[in-house]
Amino acid sequence: MQKPGRFLADKVSFVAEEAAAYLRRRKLSRRPFVRIHLAGGRILAPDPASPQGERLLDAAEALLSAAAAARE
Amino acid sequence: MRIHGCSFPDVMASRNQTDLEPQAAQLAVQRLLGFIDGMRACAVLDAKRAILASSHAEIDWAPLIEPLLDGLGDREGQIRAVNCGTGSGEVFVVSGWGLIGVAVTERFTLSSLVISDLRALLGDLARHGTVERTGARTSESSYVAGAHKNAGTL
Question: Model confidence over A8-46: pLDDT tens digits?
Fold first, then answer.
């Protein structure tokens, strides 16, 4: 026989796990990245924290800000 | 970089980009806005980074994309596309056929599809001077099929 309150504890833990997984997925999907597609199909993925990655991400952020300002 | 004995500029020099009608470039921008969900802004520039058409005239595209295409050392001439994602969205800069396509979008899972769409559009613009033959996804698949058949153009 199931202990009293076990059903509720299971439900709460299920919801908490789902929420944690959602946050993990959201964090991953928002992580900055840089991909450079070269001739021949090769793709480079510089580290976003490297000087090159930072320079490219700064440029991308500037373009995103300009687009956001233009749409307002 | 040379593939199958054929370099990218050799193939792409078939059409003079100054021949492009402004309406054709504007139609390309309209197509991009229409068939890529989450598109925020886009533009088509020529090889000298002069704007041929853009969705938002108030954006000064050339200096903004310059750091994305330049400053990559000795790989500069080989770059076909740069795709950067931040917390607020994604930026695509695709070069080819003497043209540059720029797209500012939401974050995508399948960003390579956006690159394919941009390349299909630039290819049609350069080869035919129009994008009337370009349709969403169908042109992408024909582009990919064509690319595999004739790897020398890639």
Answer: 888 999 999 999 999 888 877 788 999 988 888 888 899
Mutation choice for B interface testing from A29, A47, A63, A72 by most B CBs within 10 A: A63
- Residue B35, domain extent: 2-71+79-153
Structural contact between residues B89 and B114, judged by C-beta atoms closer than 8 angstroms: no
Residues A39, A10 share a domain: no
Query: How much is the ipTM here?
Result: 0.72
Q: Does B80 touch chain A (CB under 8 A)?
A: yes
| Total count of domains within chain A | 2
Please, which residues bridge with residue B91 across strands?
Answer: B84, B104
pTM (predicted TM-score): 0.72
Domain region containing A60: 33-72
Of the partner residues B66, B79, B86, the one whose CB lies closest to the CB of residue A64 = B86
Residue B77: closest CA among B61, B102, B96: B96
Q: B residues 83-142 near A, CB within 8 Å?
A: 83-91, 102, 104, 107, 109, 111, 115
B64 close to A (CB below 8 A): yes
